[in-house]
Amino acid sequence: MNQDAVGEHSRGGPGGDIATITVPTLVGIGRLDVADxxxxxxxxxxxxxxxxxxxxxxxxHLIALDAPVELTAALGPFLAR
Length: 81
Description:
Layout: H1 3-10, E1 26-30, H2 35-47, E2 52-56, H3 63-66, H4 68-80
Parallel strand pairs: 1-2
């Protein structure tokens, strides 16, 4: 893990204001991922207006590989709106 990148994103990311994001946003958290990444994802979900947060209990960092069925189930309704 690149500690510089983790530190940068845990302080707010590389420039820009996530509160200005205006597109529909789905933020996923793998509950088996490291705590720092879970915290970053929660902060993004809170800071992006209207963002939806989905937690994947059986996934780590690579949600698409760890929980593909659950990810597809979350993406379908999100993309249909």
